[in-house]
Amino acid sequence: MDRPLTNRPDAGHSFADRSFSDPPSSDPLSLDPRPDRARETVKLALLSLLALVFFSAVSGLARVYQAQQESLGNRWFLRGMADLNARQFDSAVKQFRAALLYSRDNYTYQAYLARALIGDNRIGEAYAYLINLWERQPEDGMVNLELARIAAQKPDSRQALRYYHNAIYASWPGNEEKEQRHDARVELIEYLLSINAKAQAESELIALEANLGEEAPEQSQAGDLFVRTQDYERALAAYRASLKADRRNPAALAGAGLAAFELGRYPMAERYLQAAAAASPADARSADLLKTTEMVLQMDPFQRGISVAQRHQIVVRAFATAGERLKRCNARIGSVRTPAAPGSSLPGNSALANLADSWAKMKPRISEAGLRRDPDLVETAMELVFNIERQTSLTCGSPQGADLALLLIAKLHEGA
Fold first, then answer.
1. For the chain, which end, N or C, has fewer CB atoms within 10 Å of the first or last residue's CB respectively?
2. Neighbouring residues of 165: CB distance < 8 A, sequence distance ≥ 6
3. Rounded distance between C-alpha atoms, residue 122 and residue 65, angstroms
4. Is residue 192 part of a domain?
5. Which of 271, 392, 227 is nearest to 321 (CA)?
6. Quick check: helix, strand or coil at residue 332?
7. How confident is the model at residue 166 (pLDDT cuts 50, 70, 90)?
8. What CATH number is given to the structural domain containing 295?
9. pLDDT value, residue 345
C-alpha cells in the first residue's frame, strides 16, 4: 500500500532548492578540476627547478672553461713578454699568437704582438694590427708611438708628426704617464733633428724644458739636445740647472764648457772644461776644447788685465803664426796668382796673393820695438792677422791649434 507523498523527506521542497542546498555528491565520476591543476603546478615547479639547476651547471662549466682559456692565454702572453724583453722577437711573435688563440680580441695581446713584429722587422703585419687597434682606441699612447715610428721609417714626416703628437698627449697607464710623454717628446725631437728640422725641434725642446723638473739627468739631456739645435744659450742654462742638482756631473760639466765655448764666453768655458777634465780624464773632447780655450785667452791681445809689453809680444807671435798659415795654404793650392772662378763664393788665389803681399810689407815693422814706436800698429797688424785666418779657413779648410784660436779671437772681436 502506497504511503502518502507528504510523508517523504523531501516533500514540500522544489528541485531547484535541492540543487543548491544539498551536500556535494560523493560520486567518484564527479568532474572537479582542482586536483589536476595542483599536479600541473607541481610538475611546472619541478621542471623550472631542473632548468635552473641545468642552467647553473652549464654557466659554471662555461665559467670554468673561460677561466681556463684566460689562464692559458695569459701563460703564453707572459712567455711572449719574456722573449720580447730579451729581444727574441721571432719567438715572442709565436708566443703572442698562441695567446691570441685563447683570446682572439684581446687588445693587450694584439698590441704587444705588433711590437714583436716591429722588432722582427715585419712592419706590414705590425701596421695592420696597430691601425686596427688605433681605430678601437685612438687615444692609446703606445699604439700612437709605434705608428709614429713606422711612419718615420717610411719616411712619412706628416704622419710621423701626427702620431708623435698623439702619443705625447695620449693616455698612458698608471703612473707612467709623465715619463712616457717625456720620452715620446724626446723621440720626436730626435726624429726632427734626423730630418734636419731644427726649428721644429727647438720648439719641441722649449715645450719639453717647460715641463722638466730639477732632476740632473733630464736637464743634462735637454742641454745635449739644445746643443744639437745650436741653441747654446738654452743649452748652457740647462746644463747649469743640472749642475745645481749634481755639481760634479762630468757630462753636465763638459756640456756647460762646450756651450760657453760656442758662445765665446771663454773664461767661463775654461772653468767648466777644467772641472770636466778633472772629473773625467778620458774625455778627449773636453781636453781639446780646454787647450783651444786656453790659447784663445793667452793669444788675445785685446783682453783686459795685460800689460803693454805682453800685448806687443802677443801681436808679434800672432803675426808670425798667421804668416805660416798663409804660406802653408799657398803651397797647398799651388800658384797664388790664379784668380777666383766666376761666381765663386770662395776667395781666389789673387786674394791670398794680396794678403801675402800685405803681410810681407808689414813684416819688417812687426817687432816689440816697432810696436812701441807705433802703438796704432797693434790694431793694423791684428786686422791683417784676422783677415788671413778668415780667408785661409775658406780656402784651405778649418784651422787647428793656434790658427784656430786666432780665428776664434777674430770672431770674438767682429764689429768691435
1. N
2. 188
3. 34
4. no
5. 392
6. helix
7. very high
8. 1.25.40.10
9. 42
Identify whether residues 276 and 328 lie together within a single domain.
Answer: no
Residues 331 and 280 in one domain: no
Residue ranges making up the domain that contains 406: 308-339+346-412
Supply φ then ψ for residue 140, to 5 degrees.
Answer: -70, 120
Whether residues 312 and 408 fall in one domain: yes
Per-residue burial over 30-47, b if 16 or more Cβ lie within 10 Å, else e, is eeeeeeeeeeeeeeeeee
> What is the rounded CA–CA span in Å between residue 44 and residue 363?
125
Beta strands in 145-206, from DSSP E residues, in sequence order: none
pLDDT at 342 over 70: no
CA distance 11 to 18: 11
334 domain residue, yes or no: yes
| Contact of 185 with 208, CB cutoff 8 Å | yes
Verify that 290 and 321 share a domain, yes or no: no
* C-alpha distances out from residue 416 to 162, 269, 411, Å: 47, 21, 10
pLDDT at 19 over 60: no
List pLDDT tens digits, range 393-411: 999 999 999 999 999 999 9
Q: How many domains does the chain have?
A: 2
Among candidate residues 379, 261, 263, 388, the one with its CA nearest the CA of residue 311 = 379
CA 118 to CA 146: how far, in whole Å? 9
Convert the pLDDT of each residue in 230-267 to its tens digit: 999 999 999 999 999 889 899 999 999 999 999 999 99
